[in-house]
Design brief:
The protein has 302 residues and is of the alpha/beta class. The chain contains twelve helices and 14 strands. Helix 2 links the parallel strand 3 and strand 4. The longest helix has 20 residues. It binds zinc ion (ZN).
Length: 302
């Protein structure tokens, strides 16, 4: 399998549903980097997977989070308690919120509602300042000869980073290059959509960041939500097109946006050849419809 050829392992966080969010484990000569944690609920699964891969906890050198939204970073503090040598690599403006997650939790409560945060997003453990590396753009991290380069990729969030891997010639894109759900797959071609989650979505920055990543000439893109693509150009085409479509949806008014965005996904999926019922498409995009609408309205009104 392609991932094992590059010593990359993908662990399903089982957040919300199967294959919605994941964690990547990268190995090189017995040094390990983990990219993304999801929530504290995923920590036992990640630890079990390390054990299955015969990776001692001491071998984990870095834990990268692409940004501090809870579906990527919520479990970071909990996981770091289990990994004695690992340092957390995070963009400087995200770092303080990992040390003191108060604002992060309040922000999540505002977006998802307190009940949902309590149920789905687990325990948020503060990270000790001494465990944090505030990275810079284009900083290279080495694990066993494998080079991982941070790329600042704002647009989804101001403090978003992506990570370029020298071995696979792939980029771990977090939420900066859209999402893809395994259910939306037709004859091997996958459907991709941008994510404009509140509160910091910026159209221009997202497009610039996509161009910046494409300048690395990646052969692979690894998505937190969920899986990978070996056709970055197809992903770029789909994401840029749908990003422009989103903008068209809010250009003249923001009324009934959730309804219109839902209908948009139904039409796009049908044009793509996906044979799911409208009801199932709306269910699959339930969170995206809500969050993307909120983010687009905030961006439009700014
Ligand atoms: Zn996310």
């Amino acid at each position: 399998m392609l991932l094992s050829k590059f010593q990359i392992d993908l662990v399903d966080s089982e957040l919300i549903r199967d294959k919605f969010a994941g964690t990547y484990i990268l190995n090189s000569n017995n040094e390990v980097a983990i990219i993304e944690v999801s929530t504290s609920h995923a920590v036992p699964t990640i630890l079990k997977r390390l054990e299955e891969l015969n990776i001692p906890k001491e071998s984990v050198k870095y834990l990268f989070i692409t940004h501090i939204h809870l579906d990527h970073a919520g479990g970071a503090g909990t996981l770091l308690k289990e990994l004695p040598r690992a340092k957390l690599v995070v963009q400087p403006s995200g770092a303080k919120h990992m040390v003191d997650p108060t604002k992060l939790i309040l922000g999540a409560n505002a977006v998802y509602g307190e009940e949902v945060v309590k149920k789905d997003y687990g325990v948020i453990t503060p990270v000790d300042q001494s465990r944090i590396i505030s990275c810079s753009d284009n900083q290279v991290f080495n694990i066993g000869g494998r080079e991982l380069t941070t790329i600042f990729t704002p647009g989804h969030a101001r403090h978003h980073i992506s990570i370029y891997d020298s071995i696979s010639n792939g980029i771990f894109t977090g939420d900066s290059f859209g999402l893809t759900y395994p259910e939306l797959n037709i004859e091997g071609r996958r459907f991709y959509q941008p994510t404009t989650t509140p509160t910091a979505f910026e159209y221009d920055k997202m497009v610039e960041s996509i161009d910046k990543m494409m300048a690395f000439n990646p052969k692979l893109l690894f998505f937190t939500h969920y899986g990978f693509s070996d056709s970055p150009k197809d992903v770029e085409y789909q994401i840029k097109k749908r990003l422009d479509d989103y903008v068209d949806l809010v250009k003249f008014n923001t009324e009934n946006l959730e309804l219109r965005l839902g209908q948009y996904y139904i039409n796009e999926c049908s044009n793509f050849g996906i044979k799911l019922s409208s009801e199932n498409i709306l269910k699959l995009f339930e969170i995206d419809i809500k969050l993307n609408s909120m983010g687009l309205i905030l961006w439009k009104n700014r």
